[in-house]
Design a protein that fits this description.
Blueprint: H1 3-27, H2 34-50, E1 74-76, E2 86-87, H3 90-104, E3 113-120, E4 123-130, E5 133-139, E6 145-147, H4 150-153, E7 171-180, H5 182-188, H6 195-203, H7 208-212, E8 216-227, H8 234-243, E9 253-256, H9 258-271, E10 279-286, H10 289-295, E11 297-298, E12 301-302, E13 305-309, E14 313-326, E15 332-343, E16 346-352, H11 356-362, E17 369-374, E18 381-385, E19 410-415, E20 420-427, H12 435-446, H13 458-466, H14 473-476, H15 481-486, H16 492-504, E21 507-509, H17 510-516, H18 524-534, H19 537-541, H20 543-546, H21 549-552, H22 560-570, H23 573-585, E22 587-589, E23 604-608, H24 616-625, E24 629-630, E25 640-643, H25 649-657, E26 661-664, H26 665-671
Bound molecules: 2-(butylsulfanyl)adenosine.
Length: about 675
């Protein structure tokens, strides 16, 4: 076939895809089956792979998902809608409880009760009631901001419009799941791929009359903002919800002990197929609201809840090849290219092999027949090898001793904590000296949690890299837009949009900036700590000049590993260049001063010894909530040393020498007006 014909064929396929997308996302109509749709997408991707000259802005390799419809008003959630961490095994559950007990400093036998609520696979919504009347309803959106879909939600019979119960709070956001039952879905099968899509499509109809035609259901399970809720625990809340007229899951239970959670999980899993709604796991929540409050949140998920997912899907396939991918931190990750196989509705053609040790342990080889597992949103992995089916001439896989991208030596670092060599082999070059690491660093830089440049995804990074348009983060802000406009798949409008998104991010917070640099061991939480510590970009940039690396270890939460990694970062000339260049282009906001109205404002604390019924992590949260700071060593900067049982003698002596106030747990709690 001539290039011209190939191009024509390709354009035709893209045109069809755009058409089906529009029908689906704007009209909620599936004209082709999910399978046919995936086939079409794959055909396009395969063509692009084979003929490098094929490109289109509408290609599925560039467009991920779809732009949210602009027809619904965006509204901030008064209390964010969070997500849940996942557990896949008994071990994950035991760890979940262990972390809770550690945080609460209860090391002995616990008797924490949990609600176990089957996790319906639908679309979450938040309904605001004011004086018993349904005022508005929002979709989850990105968790912080949802779409106002009140009129659509109002068509759902299960959602009460007026609640007259005396004990119904004056104001409350009732949260739950909108879904479609399996039997109702059977009637709509032609139009949607699965019940979840049907619910989501229906909820986002522009005309509420269209929503009404689809039998949506609502099950309530939590709340957001509230004023006047007089309830102490989740189980009681679930019961109240049904008294108030909401539907709740009939399989909700109150359970104590992980062993019993597992028993319940197995029972529900057996019933799963017979239920008239899709569930993908069970959500466990610490029942007691007072404990929930103490436990709080990590990142965007509560410490007091977890989703225990149902078992994964498995399938047999064959390893065609083993690729080595190089990550942002230089880690070499082996990936098995397998014969494409459908696992639970998803076409899988790659499976991670984790690291060198995993390959040797399982003796995984090219040509092997393997069991591939896909669980939830995690990357599929190889579960086991069927040795009987191994071809006679197969050879052991030899892990590269040199980086496949830059040729530098690969190394296994010694972990000073575990006193073992790392399982991961890394490229020994420093960041931007290795092309593959650079690309990954750039992907990280533009990613959601860092600079979050709209429309600048991983595929764009790769394509701009190939075209030599970007090598370092600063290049993103100096793009040759005239050249991009002439590229296949780009036009005036898309370039304008890109320019706008990039310029929009020239103003950035110090914490996002630090996170965006992708320094090893500096994740979101650490970037936040560093940003608070440095206060301004200049202070951060001048760290090597002031050479105060050791002071960093005083930041509570920053340890030796992080300090070494920061030192490494600053000792690389290319990193310094990136910092300088970005400093010239960007306007990096100083870290916002913390709320200075707490009773511990301007005071620093350090804990030594074991406290009674309260963990280090919880004390730290309490100090920070009340505007205080924690430090990790005794110095002149310390105001209070809190001592518990068996304190470190040296710390107490040092504190005495420096005339630092030494207090016990009760004295500390009094400072908060929180006597235990
Ligand atoms: S609680 C902070 N309870 O799961 C607690 N969520 O991954 C957040 N879900 O977006 C939610 N059943 O769509 C909660 N009984 C249940 C749930 C449930 C289903 C969904 C919900 C949420 C997602 C979290």
């Amino acid at each position: 076939m001539s290039n011209e014909l190939i191009q024509k064929e390709y354009k035709k396929k893209i045109k069809s895809l755009v058409y089906y997308n529009q029908r689906y996302y704007n009209g909620n109509i599936s004209e082709i089956s999910d399978f046919e749709y995936d086939e079409l997408k794959n055909e396009i991707l395969n063509l692009e792979k084979k003929y490098k000259f094929l490109k289109s802005k509408d290609s599925p390799s560039i467009k991920v998902g779809f732009k949210p419809s602009k027809t619904f008003k965006k509204v901030l959630h008064k209390v964010p809608m969070l997500s849940l961490a996942n557990a896949f095994s008994e071990e994950d559950l035991f760890n979940f409880e262990k972390k809770i007990l550690n945080f609460l400093s209860q090391t002995t036998n616990s008797n924490i009760s949990y609600t176990a609520e089957p996790k319906i696979d639908g679309i979450s919504a938040s309904l605001t009631y004011l004086n018993g009347k349904l005022k508005s309803g929002l979709s989850r959106g990105d968790g912080k901001e949802g779409e106002d879909i009140t009129s659509n939600l109002s068509t759902i019979k299960d959602i009460p419009k007026i609640i007259s119960s005396k004990d119904f709070p004056k104001e409350i956001d009732i949260r739950g799941e909108v879904f479609i039952s399996k039997s109702d879905f059977d009637i709509l099968k032609e139009k949607f791929a699965n019940p979840r899509n049907a619910a989501s499509g229906s909820l986002r109809q522009k005309n509420p009359d269209d929503t009404k035609k689809i039998p949506l259901k609502f099950i309530a399970y939590t709340f957001g903002f509230e004023k006047g809720l007089k309830i102490n625990n989740q189980y009681e809340y679930l019961n109240k919800l049904s008294e108030w007229g909401f539907k709740t899951n009939p399989l909700n239970r109150l359970i104590t002990g992980i062993k019993n959670l597992i028993k319940n999980y197995n029972e529900v899993e057996k019933k799963r197929a017979d239920l008239d709604f899709d569930i993908d796991g069970i959500v466990y929540k610490v029942n007691d609201f007072a404990l929930q409050k103490r436990l709080g949140f990590v990142a965007n998920a509560p410490r007091w809840a977890i989703a225990h997912k149902f078992s994964s899907n498995k399938a047999v396939s064959e390893i065609i090849d083993i690729d080595i991918q190089i990550g942002r931190t230089g880690a070499l990750t082996p990936v098995a290219k397998i014969k494409p196989i459908n696992i639970g509705g998803v076409l899988v053609s790659n499976a991670t092999l984790h690291n060198e040790d995993e390959i040797s342990r399982k003796d995984i080889r090219v040509g092997d027949t393997v069991i591939v597992e896909r669980a939830g949103d995690v990357i599929p992995h190889i579960l086991s090898v069927d040795i009987k089916k191994r071809p006679k001439n197969s050879k052991k896989f030899i892990f590269p001793k040199n980086c496949p991208s830059c040729g530098s030596k690969t190394i296994k670092e010694f972990n000073s904590i575990t006193k073992k060599k790392d399982a991961v082999r890394r490229c020994s070059s420093e960041g931007y000296d290795c092309d593959k690491i650079s690309i990954e660093k750039l992907k990280h830089f533009v990613s959601k949690e860092a600079f979050n440049i709209d429309g600048f995804g991983k595929k764009i990074v790769e394509s701009f890299w190939k075209l030599n348009l970007i090598r370092f983060p600063q290049d993103i802000f100096k793009l040759d837009y005239d050249r991009i406009e002439k590229l296949d798949g780009w036009g005036k409008l898309s370039v304008e949009n890109l320019k706008y998104s990039i310029n929009d991010k020239k103003k950035i917070s110090l914490e996002k900036f630090i996170y965006g640099l992708g320094i090893r061991h500096i994740g979101l939480e650490n970037a936040k700590l560093l940003s608070k510590y440095f206060g301004s970009f200049l202070n951060f940039k001048d760290l090597p000049i002031n050479n105060k690396y050791n002071d960093l270890a005083n930041i509570d939460g920053i340890g030796e590993t992080q300090v070494n990694s920061i030192k490494n970062f600053f000792s690389n000339r290319l990193n310094l260049k990136v910092l300088n260049e970005l400093g010239k282009i960007l306007s990096i906001n100083n870290a916002t001063a913390k709320i200075k109205n707490g009773s511990l404002n301007n005071k620093t604390f350090l804990v030594t010894g074991k406290l009674d019924g309260i963990s280090r992590a919880e004390i730290k949260s309490l100090i920070e909530e009340n505007s205080g700071t924690t430090v990790s060593s005794v110095s002149k900067k310390l105001n209070y040393l809190i001592i518990g049982d068996k304190p470190t003698k040296r710390k107490v002596l040092n504190a005495k020498d420096l005339n630092i106030k030494i207090i016990d747990q009760n004295q500390f709690l009094k400072m908060l007006d929180k006597t235990s």
